[in-house]
Amino acid sequence: MATTGWFRPPIGTTSLPNRSVNRQSSLKLRDCFIEYPLASKIIVRNLSYTTNESCLKEEFSNFGQIVEVKLVKGETSTKSKGYAFVQYTNQDDAMSALETMDRKYLDGRVVFVELARPIDKRSAYPKTSGPPQESPYSGQKQTQG
């Protein structure tokens, strides 16, 4: 008699089909590093709420020397928001961690690892849909005084 249920593979392995890093995704990641040449910080999403910074440091230190692990918590509570930043001393270590740990199991959940990008305040707001509206100031000449 076969049993059904949830199987939790060990940390660092995955049972998801077709999740191996292929050449195309590796090139895509390298393009990100070209765009952000000093990038050595990654973001780990979909973390278990019980995962702590020491667990993250232990797991991600396998790829290189870590400068900082920052588990993001709520402003009013000490509860984890489910994501963290890991900063490495160099870009190659961050790249290795990103390629290896993306879509792997950590504390019973599949985590997603991406390159942490700088915050652009202009893109923080949603863009409106439809044709662009003409600005009332676009037709005026600027006077110098």
Verbal overview:
The protein contains 3 helices and 5 strands. The chain is 22% helix and 22% strand. The protein is globular and about 40 Å long. It has a domain at 39-118: RRM (RNA recognition motif) domain (Alpha-Beta Plaits, 2-Layer Sandwich), CATH 3.30.70.330. Mean pLDDT is 75; it is low at 1-10, 13-23 and 125-130. The chain is α+β, with helices and mostly antiparallel strands and 145 residues long. Strands 2-3-1-5-4 form a 5-stranded antiparallel sheet. It has helices at residues 23-35, 53-60, 91-101, and strands at 41-45, 66-73, 80-88, 104-106, 109-115.
Query: How does the major sheet shape up?
Result: 5 strands, antiparallel
CATH architecture of the domain at 39-118: 2-Layer Sandwich
- Number of separate strands: 5
What distance lies between the first and last C-alpha atoms, to the nearest angstrom?
A: 88 Å
Proportion of helical residues:
10-25%
Pfam family, one: RRM_1
GO molecular function, one term: U1 snRNA binding
Subcellular location: Nucleus
Main location: nucleus
Summarize the structure.
The chain has 145 residues and is of the alpha+beta class.
Secondary-structure blueprint of this entry?
Elements: H1 23-35, E1 41-45, H2 53-60, E2 66-73, E3 80-88, H3 91-101, E4 104-106, E5 109-115
Antiparallel strand pairs: 1-3, 1-5, 2-3, 4-5
Please describe the structure with a list of short key phrases separated by commas or semicolons:
145 residues; alpha+beta; Alpha-Beta Plaits; five-stranded antiparallel β-sheet; 5 strands; 22% strand; globular; disordered N terminus; mRNA binding; U1_U11-U12_snRNP_70-35kDa; U1 snRNA binding; RBD_domain_sf
